[in-house]
Write a structure and sequence with these properties.
Elements: E1 7-12, H1 15-21, H2 24-32, E2 35-39, E3 54-57, H3 60-67, H4 71-86, E4 91-93, H5 96-103, H6 105-113, E5 122-123, E6 127-130, H7 135-145, E7 151-155, E8 166-170, E9 183-187, E10 194-201, E11 204-211, E12 224-227, H8 228-231, H9 257-271, E13 275-282, E14 289-296, H10 306-326, H11 342-356
Parallel strand pairs: 1-2, 1-3, 3-4, 5-14
Antiparallel strand pairs: 6-9, 7-8, 7-9, 8-12, 10-11, 10-13, 13-14
Helix pairs in contact: 3-4, 9-11
The protein binds adenosine-5'-triphosphate, (1S,3S,4S)-1,3,4-triphospho-MYO-inositol and magnesium ion.
């Protein structure tokens, strides 16, 4: 551990996120480890703000705006990308191309769907993207993809505005007119209103249990419009989470640590990201593990000693990045299985990103 501030963490988080995480506390941890913490000013060239040892960010909202054509957001993202391109010596948490994938629900589901997790009793509930406003065409698309009633209709863009979290439960063909393309329709999996959030910080993960939607069955009822943030936060008390009397007798299956470990390993390898939240439900009856959402740099509410874990990750990333720079392609002396192969994960993510989505 050094006392002198020689290493710089350049970071960008929204004001809301810094307040939520109580970010000033992280300053103390940084100082203890000899790091200076500098917030990136995305309205200016980053060259004059550096040099940085590592860049840590949650740029989801700005990337989403840039994709939608906002010129200011595009300029900000270009500044970050140019800096990264000109400074291969700087470690990045997390690669922007992986974050882009998570911004698109269809893309992230497809990506994990093709990961081989099915063999381990883990699945992505059947899903399809709806891009048309034509009712008949949408019915056909849903049928062809095997999306059953009831299904959840989610905006295709997963972050970036409050609209991203306005979801709909569709119970029958009549309800399909309530879908607002572009959106992803995903078969609803009954899971006794228990959601498991796996929070990842590099190789560490921690599981928290959250309220979730109650069991639903096909019916002639009208569409339910809801905001995901009202349902599955730690303090949510939505009436949509209260099990019907007949369902209270159903047994709830507890998650197995080894299964969660497997999910973490595969998703991490596929996406090449270190800061993620994976939302899992366990299907009533079958006991299959359904991945229903993956979030970039989530809230980590309930994660013990998050800032120390974040610092451990930063140290590991810098170390690994330096090793990769010295001997690219040869990490034999440092590889400890899944745990330290960051460079490979990042380049796998880069290669896959342009081909799979
Ligand atoms: N396929 C599904 N089967 C069962 N429940 C689901 C499914 N998809 C979503 N849900 C329910 O809806 C909630 C919100 O869904 P989802 O996580 O996809 O939305 P989100 O806006 O991305 O949420 P977050 O705030 O976690 O990012 C989940 O917590 C869960 O209760
Ligand atoms: O920690 P959990 O409960 O998983 O919640 C996260 C949500 O799942 C994300 O959707 C939030 O991200 P956005 O607000 O960027 O969409 C994310 O927002 P944040 O960046 O403000 O923390 C979290 O609220
Ligand atoms: Mg989400």
């Amino acid at each position: 551990m050094e006392n002198k501030s020689t290493k710089v963490i350049g970071y960008w988080l929204s004001e809301k996120k810094t307040q939520k995480l109580n970010w000033t506390e992280f300053n103390f941890v940084c100082r203890k480890y000899g790091f200076e913490l500098v917030k990136l000013d995305l309205s200016r060239d980053l060259e004059e703000q550096g040099p940085f040892t590592v860049i840590l960010h949650k740029l989801t909202d700005i990337i989403a705006l840039a994709i939608q054509g906002d010129p200011e957001a595009q300029a900000m993202i270009s500044r970050v990308e140019n800096y990264i391109k000109c400074h291969p010596e700087v470690a990045i948490i997390d690669p922007l191309e992986s974050v882009r994938k998570l911004l698109d629900r269809y893309c992230s589901y497809s990506f994990i769907h093709d990961s081989g997790l099915e063999k381990a009793n883990v699945f992505i509930p059947s899903f399809v993207e709806l891009t048309s406003n034509d009712f008949e065409e949408n019915l056909k698309t849903l049928r062809m993809a095997g999306v059953n009633f009831p299904f959840v209709c989610k905006p295709s863009v997963a972050h970036g505005s409050s609209n991203a979290h306005k979801l709909r439960m569709i119970f029958n063909e009549e309800g399909v007119k309530d879908c607002r393309p572009p959106c992803v329709a995903q078969s609803f999996v009954n899971h006794n209103a228990v959601l498991y959030k796996i929070y990842l910080v590099g190789d560490e993960h921690f599981l928290v249990e959250r309220p979730s939607l109650k069991n639903f069955y096909p019916s002639d009822r009208g569409t339910i419009f809801f905001d995901s943030h009202d349902v599955s936060k730690a303090d949510s008390t939505s009436s949509l989470s209260i099990l019907d009397p007949d369902d209270r007798e159903l047994s709830t299956i507890q998650p197995e640590a080894s299964k969660l470990q497997q999910i973490v390993r595969v998703v991490r390898r596929k996406l090449g990201m270190s800061l993620m939240g994976i939302d899992v439900v366990i299907e009533n009856g079958s006991g299959r593990y359904g991945i229903i959402d993956i979030n970039a740099y989530p809230g980590y509410d309930g994660y013990p000693n998050f800032f120390q874990s974040l610092m451990n990750l930063i140290l590991e990333m810098i170390n690994q990045h330096n090793c990769d720079l010295i001997s690219p392609g040869d990490d034999s002396g440092f590889d400890t299985g899944d745990s330290s192969d960051e460079k490979k994960k990042q380049s796998a993510a880069t290669e896959d990103s342009w081909f799979n989505c």
